Amino acid sequence: MTNHWIDIKNSDCVLIMGSNAAENHPISFKWVLRAKEKGAKVISVDPRFTRTSSRADYYAPLRSGTDIAFLGGMIHYILTQEKFFKDYVYNYTNAAYLVNERFGFEDGLFSGYNPETKKYDKAAWAFQKDAQGLVRKDPTFQDPRCVLQLLKKHYSRYTLEKVSSITGTPVEDLKAVYEMYAATGRPDKAGTIMYALGWTQHTVGVQNIRTMSMIQLLLGNIGIAGGGVNALRGEPNVQGSTDQAILYHILPGYLAAPRASAQGLKGYLEAITPKTKEPQSANWPQNLPKYVVSLLKCWFGENATAANDFGYNYLPKLDDGQSCSIMETFDAMYEGKLKGFLSVGQNPACSLPNAGKVRAALSKLDWLVHANIFDNETASFWHGPGVDPKKVKTEVFLLPAAASMEKAGSMTNSGRWVHWKYVASAPPGDAISAGDIFYRIMAKVKALYAKEGGNAAEPIKALKWDYADSKGAFDTLAVAKAMNGYFLEDVTIAGKAYKKGDNVPGFALLSDEGKTSSGNWLHCGMFTTDGKNLSARRGKSDPTGLGLYPEWAWCWPVNRRIIYNRASVDPAGQPYNPARPLLRWAGDKWVGDVPDGPWPPLADKDKGRLPFIMKPDGVSFLYGPGLNEGPFPEHYEPLESPLAKNPMSGQRINPAVKIFKGEVDKFASADAKFPLVCSTYTCTEHWCTGGSTRWMSWLNEAMPQVYVEMSQELAALKGIKNGDKVRVASVRGQLEAVAMVTHRLRPFKVQGQDVHQVGMTFNYGWRYPADCGDSANLLTPTVGDANTMTPEYKAFMVNVSKA
Amino acid sequence: MSNGKSMMVDTSRCTACRGCQVACKQWNGLPGTKTKQTGTYQNPPDFSHETWKLVRFAEGKAENGKPYWYFFSDMCRHCLQPSCMEAMKKNEIVQDTQTGAVIYTPQTKDLVFKDVVDGCPYNIPRQDPKSKAIKKCTLCLDRLKANMIPACALSCPTGSVQFGERDEILKVVEARVAELKKTYPKAKALNADQVRVIYIVTDDAEKYHKYAES
């Protein structure tokens, strides 16, 4: 989230799209309803009328996988009706930037596309630069090559009728939602978006979110109280694990993973560190080298020296263009290329797409180590449905893990608030925390390498591994302090002396010369110099009255509760909305939230800085030449869709997606055998694959068995009655489910035809309870977003028949 | 004596998360019963001697052609003058003088179950087939005596369920209904002058549940 949970109460219009907040983030509704009670409009856009929709002021249906069309229509509406916040757009976005002549768009493809590699040459999308290297701008916003004009042109194709014929949303619903939301494009209004996996889990996931980010910029809704772009993250510390780089493409703190072509530390730092000539841009990422070197000092300690590039060469490197997402990992496993797999607190046999392939892949392993609080379909894959245990060679080790309330440590919520938590109860039996499990394994590995050597032993031997407490157990507080980082020698910065061994109280003090360590620059500042843990704070003061609670826990970065908050003020530093002032320049200092940097406001031509400090040029990107499928989001159909042709262009699917071509990765689009759109999701009562909740009788009682929701109209066509047992099939697999025939789904009118959509939760699996049914992921396709490889769980094609 | 306690169940704030349904079972030591999916979110299908709090789901098509989905977190209303008590032979049902909670004692096994349930306009009581005792919500009287609010009210994330002194809750209910009426002309509190557990609805009560209102 750019903002945070409590801040939702400050909003004037809450758009809930790509999430089902009432069901999947129940506590969030405390703040949604508080906003509503103060007069805010709540809008729910979803293929299915959900528990969220039931509490909304306005509900609009849309066909799964058509969010960019829906939102593209909103951009068109905002621009043609002149609803955008002009001062904000002109001052704080790249609306005036001129794009070079090579950029173009024709029939669904941007310029620079190579159909063989399925990649774009992004140089074709670059900005025009003058002799000094500054981006050329048109302050009149009239040049046809300026971003504002290109934006108008691109989205002029997204008319109400066109959008409706793609999304299946009635025109009057589109108009109503556009009007309600665009009304927040005034300085005194704030609109917020609550999205989650309903947007990320598409082949165009990142572009779904980008489209909404552009809307938020046009309406001046980023950096303000009650606004922002807000991802609702999952319960078990999803935000924290992302911050610590649970994904393959990053190092902790969102530093890009090193690629093989970068020559040494210098080459890597040059590749990741942006440069600018823009005089008023802070370009904060110019500091990345300090964070990288401090990270290396944290990992390799005294073995990281200037002479050895601080141990950079110890890091594993990705090949150029290599992607190691979980789908690719399991594809390699299926091909027999992996020997062993460590699986912690997850259930890929039910959670990954094409679960039949995943289960078969597990049987190709020599060994599987699985740490969890319960047995699940992954640990027990060797005796699953249709599997002969005698024919499975994989040796499985099931390690009992401590549950979240049985371990101390930090927990980061969606609003980036890091909360320190304590052990509520000791884990049962031999169970220990996952951190402890891996701390001990790595300690043994290090000892073995020290004794016996081996291939590439140096990085393992060089690793600093001293996070045990006095009893030899994993010490989370020691790890948290290492993540914050230490001064490694006595230094004096800006007249203030710091001693070797002090915690570094903020990332602005980190060094690229090896004088500091920090395991995650974003966490730097969570501890004070003398080691006080700010995430353990529980102060309830609220000086701004906006619910920032600056002394409750601690949030990254540097306890800034709403990021990009300098965009909430005009160039003179005065709040655009005086009724909800987040920040104000008091002549010599900022008052309110922790500002996005100490500099004076923009009007100070010398010292003032632009508000989007993480962007090289200090302004936000309406035109964003960085993503893999183009600088403007464009509607493409899901890989599997009911349409043979994309109504917007000749390019049916996202041109940059990777297609898996193995024998078990079959796809069926516009195929009469699989005519129904299907989406998967989860219910309030179960958690993800149900790996923890299906062992809880009160929750099973409430949601006992796998079900498929469908409209009255579809049920009548198929001769299905509510409660009937039915078979749901895709080209990849099938399962039985109970039909839930409901008014809450309706056929969509798409391109003049009726398109039916069904939906299932992925909360079930064969392991327990015995009659609950199997995973909906037996149906889903192995395909992901073109930037992140997040699987397309939300839109694929199935058929339903009476069992 | 004060006017005892009361609870507001504001259905306009309910998201049917069913935290209340589970919290009731957890505090009262009631088991998760074996259920089947029959084509509805509502489960278990009805009250039983092991289910005293149940979120009922009701859906249909509204006048504007769009769906509606109403949630009714059903429980004993703890009537001011409980008509179920008319089925008593001795003192099998008692009313706590301090709070007003209506309590079924184990001696309810000696009552004619039909008389008790027929006496309840809200169709709440259920009989344990083994012990024959009649069971229902206790308003968490054990918690109240320890200065804690009922488990369902504590679990509610949205403020739909609020608990307190009856006089205070009546004021909250009145203000809330007045506010809701601006948007929903049919908004009203159900049987507020007869019950301690007061439901607020925004549409016809029977659309939520057959026994929502007496």
Share in helix of chain B: 10-25%
Low-confidence stretches of chain B: none
Shape of chain A: globular
List the quaternary state of the chains: heterodimer
What fold name goes in the CATH topology slot of one domain in chain A?
Dimethylsulfoxide Reductase, domain 2
The mean pLDDT of chain B is: 97
State the distance separating the first and last CA atoms of chain B.
Answer: 27 Å
Largest sheet of chain B: 4 strands, mixed
Plain-language structure description:
The complex is a heterodimer of chains A (803) and B (214). Helices cover 23% and strands 14% of the residues of chain A. Chain A is an alpha/beta fold and 803 residues long. Among the domains of chain A are: 230 residues, Dimethylsulfoxide Reductase, domain 2, CATH 3.40.228; 127 residues, Barwin-like endoglucanases, CATH 2.40.40.20. Chain A has a 6-stranded mixed beta barrel with strand order 22-28-23-25-24-29. In chain A, β26 and β27 form a beta hairpin. Chain A is globular, with a radius of gyration of 26 Å. Chain B is α+β, with helices and mostly antiparallel strands. Chain B has a single domain, classed as Alpha-Beta Plaits. Chain B has 6 helices and 10 strands, in the order βαββββαββααβαββα. In chain B, strands 8-1-10-9 form a 4-stranded mixed beta sheet. In chain B, strands 2-3 form a two-stranded antiparallel sheet. The longest helix of chain B has 16 residues. Chains A and B meet through α2, α3, α20 and β25 of A and α1, β2 and β3 of B.
